[in-house]
């Protein structure tokens, strides 16, 4: 008889006692998704639970038509896990739907929600309440959830102001990215999904959040969207994304920490981001290995090239300060067939080389856990994603490398530590020691 997923999870918990148990479960949920019983879904925008907003990518293991009930009634944006046989401390997990997952959220016999693994109850499940600001529409009828959704339990306002990427088609799109497909599927389903958000509607949505977020949970905003290789609305990438920050900072000076996820741009453009009021820059390097970057990010390789991309990341530290340059990589694609590493050892050692390259210069990368969306080339060929062991060892390596170079957790991510972290699309913040965080948070 093969090993069950429970055996695999418990084996890793035993082998890596330095990684919180919470992170083992969270990584497994992020890489493989969660099935939802119909009763655990939300009432969309009319219910009492905060629904999944599809803030940039689909982050699902099926297309909307394949998700069944979860396509009609949205799942929650995030869930929070506690208790169970592993005694989990409060753990916030972004929801990625997979009807075939061995993890299932459903109603337990006592009427509360629980997370089952292989049919056994392993945690109590809490759902995010519908925020007050989601109950108010903009003057043009659009919802705040569509224009300015919040994630990370309300900490981060996620402003995907350009819903598509100009790297288009098989020869340019990153091989793990479904931004363009996700836009098409929402349009096909008749859901509101604005291709380019106007500065005015973003400001109006922020006005509503500012007014109704009475507990001050929202602390940061991220401006992002697809790459711009020519122009959008007559503007290049730095000015297109930067002018939102300019307008936000004019209207709400210092209310939130401003971040931008964009390409690694030439220094003059990066300076413009800073001048517009952005404080944290995410020029994502996606995957460290040269061969894999060239294969997985053909558009970025063609337009900029890996070496230049890395040079620009280092240059941007002179403008933002190394602490505030936080490039992301997609953890797990290193092990995607057919081109990826075939052993966890090789994948970790390559990823560690990248971490050391940046951390030795005071720049702290961060990562999201790869969700193998089925409409992407890598997701199609690797529906199970990367091995769980890779993700667990990465957490250990990340923390170890950070400590070696005397760095603390990056700013703009909320509190660190198991039981306290709110960052929901990887468990790097759950795995860092409690109290390790930037003064900005
Ligand atoms: S640059 Fe790559 S990862 Fe970013 S949106 Fe475009 S295709 Fe997706």
UniProtKB/TrEMBL annotation:
Superkingdom of the organism of origin: Bacteria
InterPro entries listed in its UniProt record: Aldolase_TIM (IPR013785), rSAM (IPR007197), rSAM_sf (IPR058240)
Keyword annotations from UniProtKB, A to Z: Iron, Iron-sulfur, Metal-binding, S-adenosyl-L-methionine
SUPFAM superfamilies reported for this sequence: Radical SAM enzymes (SSF102114)
Name of the protein: Radical SAM protein
Gene source species: Streptomyces luteireticuli
